[in-house]
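Priority: medium. Attachment 1 of 2:
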């Protein structure tokens, strides 16, 4: 019997399930969006129960579209939006509050308070992370302190915390009736509660952030069986892969060697470079994170640059300004003009992430004249993603000492030919799109396959990776550098908007 792999890809705006054949090709796919909830400026929430219902629905639909029985599925992998916090009652399975999303900035005041004693990097050597509203620990602290009864429930062992992977796996494996409460090393490394060296929750961090250990999941490897599914559509299937979405994409792109890098263009934009078995501490505003741990093998680490707003800016043009009716229209609108008309869009809606880490920054459009039109705004929005990627890549090369020879790309925006060519031009290096661009889900499927022994090791996965298109830089260097200098002028004007 052919052994297929299923992967849940739970993202910021939607949940997908993809069924892959053993050679990495898509056999069936289903997707469903969930609501974005904005209770106050800077606050972003999701309904965790809605996400779970959508997950159950897309699993059944993807398996049906693949036309296979449960017995044909060798294993199930889970990949997820990282840093988003869910807190729920283990007895009822009910969330105690909406999930607080990674983009949410309600804990900015807490960040400032902690940074006042030791600076923003006081925990960087231990966790690889600066103090920022991005990560999970302070979001969890906020929930425990602001949701009535939450802290008492947590201390009594009745409340459970997890990033979205933990929430889904707990429900998949039975929920209140014996659900398994686990998270993997990649997701745990984004909470700011785990020691990078020990790969375990750190008691000093738990004390500092006032987090009871009883609320935390058990940390496991990224590949390995953690339980079996109780959901009818996949009942009895082993859950054997767990990865944060960007680390999953790194595996999906088969970046298993130090120096190999990928960029995922989704709601945000995330560039990761494999640095091997030794964590590299960044001096340039990047994050040091766990790349993956496959079974009992030593972990691999990565440098990461996180950009908060990429595809979300296109959605903003669609939903807030109504410049376009559908996201895919942004490319044709941008092609109506020859260049950006000296218009630059800094999408610092929730501050700037790597390499700036400026919560006080806010979004601006710079360089407007009467000449500028909607085409220039559309082009400036696309170019913002490429400029931000160059910022991160330059920082990555400084920290690692490695000049990246090519950038492997994936995510929803890589179908935008204009953006991909401009990205190659801005980097002065090739941009490579694989045949299968659903690399986030593919990475979770690969981890699950490794977890059940479908492949002996990661080297066997390289044969599945194939190039669909390569973009070479064609822009003259003088023009590239002039545009990049103007981008930095716009960046400087966005900083410290909030006092």
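Attachment 2 of 2:
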């Amino acid at each position: 019997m052919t052994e297929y792999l299923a992967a849940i890809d739970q993202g910021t705006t939607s949940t997908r399930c993809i069924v892959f054949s053993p050679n990495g090709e898509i056999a069936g796919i289903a997707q469903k969006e969930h609501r974005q909830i904005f209770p106050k400026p800077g606050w972003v929430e999701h309904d965790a129960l809605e996400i779970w219902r959508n997950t159950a629905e897309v699993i059944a639909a993807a398996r049906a579209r693949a036309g296979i029985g449960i017995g044909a599925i060798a294993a199930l992998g889970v990949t997820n939006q990282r840093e988003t916090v869910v807190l729920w009652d283990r007895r009822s399975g009910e969330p105690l509050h909406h999930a607080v999303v990674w983009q949410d900035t309600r804990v900015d005041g807490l960040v400032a308070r902690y940074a006042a004693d030791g600076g923003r990097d006081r925990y960087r050597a231990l966790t690889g992370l600066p103090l920022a509203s991005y990560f999970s620990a302070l979001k969890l602290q906020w929930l425990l302190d602001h949701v009535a009864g939450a802290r008492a429930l947590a201390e009594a062992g009745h409340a459970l915390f997890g990033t979205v992977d933990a929430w889904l796996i707990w429900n998949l494996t039975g929920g209140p009736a014996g659900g398994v409460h686990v998270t993997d090393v990649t997701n745990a490394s984004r909470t700011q509660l785990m020691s990078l060296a020990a790969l375990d929750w750190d008691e000093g961090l738990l004390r500092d952030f006032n987090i009871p250990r009883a609320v935390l999941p058990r940390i496991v490897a990224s590949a390995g069986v953690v339980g079996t599914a109780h959901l009818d559509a996949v009942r009895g299937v082993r859950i054997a892969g767990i990865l944060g979405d960007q680390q999953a994409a790194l595996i999906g792109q088969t970046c298993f060697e130090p120096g190999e890098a990928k960029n995922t263009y989704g709601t945000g934009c995330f560039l990761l470079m494999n640095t091997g078995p030794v964590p590299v501490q960044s001096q340039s505003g990047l994050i040091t994170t766990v790349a993956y741990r496959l079974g009992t093998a030593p972990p691999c680490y990565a440098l990461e640059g996180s950009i908060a707003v990429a595809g979300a800016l296109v959605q903003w043009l669609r939903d807030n300004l109504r410049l376009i009716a559908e996201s895919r229209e942004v490319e044709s609108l941008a092609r109506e003009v020859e260049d950006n008309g000296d218009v630059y869009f800094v999408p610092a809606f929730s501050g700037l992430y790597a390499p700036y880490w400026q919560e006080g920054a806010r979004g601006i459009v710079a360089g407007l004249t009467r000449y500028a039109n909607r085409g220039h705004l559309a082009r400036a929005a696309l170019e913002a993603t490429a400029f931000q990627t160059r910022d991160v890549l330059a920082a990555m090369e400084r920290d690692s000492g490695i000049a990246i020879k090519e950038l492997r790309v994936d995510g929803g925006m890589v179908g935008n030919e204009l953006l991909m060519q401009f990205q190659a031009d801005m980097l002065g290096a090739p941009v490579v799109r694989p045949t299968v661009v659903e690399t986030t889900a593919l990475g979770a499927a690969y981890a699950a396959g490794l977890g059940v022994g479908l492949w002996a090791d990661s080297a066997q996965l390289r044969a599945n990776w194939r190039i669909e298109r390569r973009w070479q830089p064609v822009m003259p260097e003088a023009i590239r550098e002039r545009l990049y200098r103007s981008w930095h002028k716009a960046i400087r004007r966005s900083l410290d908007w909030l006092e």
